[in-house]
Amino acid sequence: MGKMRTQSAPWRAAAVLASVLLVGGVAACGNSDTGGGGTKDDGKITMGFSQVGAESGWRTANTISIKEAATAAGIELKFDDAQQKQENQIKAIRNYIQQKVDVIAFSPVVESGWDTVLKEAKDANIPVILTDRSVDSADKSLYKTFLGSDFVKEGKLAGEWLVEQKKTASGPVNIVELQGSTGAAPANDRKKGFAEAIAANPNLKVIASQTGDFTRAGGKQVMEQFLKANPKIDVLFAHNDDMGLGALEAITAAGKVPGKDITIITIDAVKDGMQALADGKFNFIAECSPLLGPQLMDLAKKVKDGQEVPARIETQETTFTTEQAKEALPNRKY
Ligand code: AHR
């Protein structure tokens, strides 16, 4: 008490200033806490991103694109690799909610089972952007937008090419299908699009279809089983390049010539896939672009700003034959 009474004028002024700053600081934190999840007033955006995993060349390119784009956009990125497990993604999203990031973005491992955690993000006033893959939630207000490919279209393009190639076939054309990860949007949709397209020719029959989990190892292993169980395989449709590349090993080991004895169609168009196509081991690729980073960062800035964004942003893609792959390869970035 005595000490307080004897405080000099400059000390008293400093104490008053300190308490003003303290109250001001708390108020500033309080304001941003209620203003869209963000906690900082420095204008910097923090994004929490939950990635599927590192299962394919596509995924690696996608991760690089997101990290580079975040740095270029001045966005602080918190990144988590879910190792292809939904429970890891849910955990990561809950952590981001606790950390009060400004925006959450993620590429869902599977389509179903997101409503609860998305509702938690919404209640915390943190906008969510879906990238690459979507969810099947009926309540579209649980996320701001979905940026990514039309996977049904990719499967259709693959099937339509095959229909054209086999239009003069007089007997059955046996197709085996390597599906992506079970329950993932690209696996469901590519299967659907392909089936719809080949329905145009009753000679085209899928005689076996199984998941290879989007990995090379999975593609190789399942193709070995297909080859053992089916003496006549004319076509392989693989839901991504990596599974197709794994299958090449199995086909060669079985004494068959990939691209000749078995026509191979894949999706993605990553460098290794394009090389296989240029070399004549693959026959056709429907492109799926992983370079989503710049658009994602742009969307993050807009949603943080409270601007309206389109509910769906579709990635522009193309297809490749062997000749087109030879031409495109030298400039392929991933
Ligand atoms: O969701 C995109 C798909 O996921 C890619 O086609 C595949 O390679 C990846 O694992």
From TrEMBL:
GO terms for molecular function: carbohydrate binding. GO terms for cellular component: cell envelope. SUPFAM superfamilies: Periplasmic binding protein-like I. PROSITE patterns: PROKAR_LIPOPROTEIN. Gene3D superfamilies: 3.40.50.2300. Keywords: Signal. Residues 1-28 form the signal peptide. It is found in: Cell envelope. Residues 49-308 form the Periplasmic binding protein domain. InterPro entries: Peripla_BP_I, SBP_2_dom. Residues 324-334 have a biased composition (Basic and acidic residues). Residues 315-334 are annotated as: Disordered. Belongs to the bacterial solute-binding protein 2 family. This is ABC transporter periplasmic-binding protein. It comes from Micromonospora noduli.
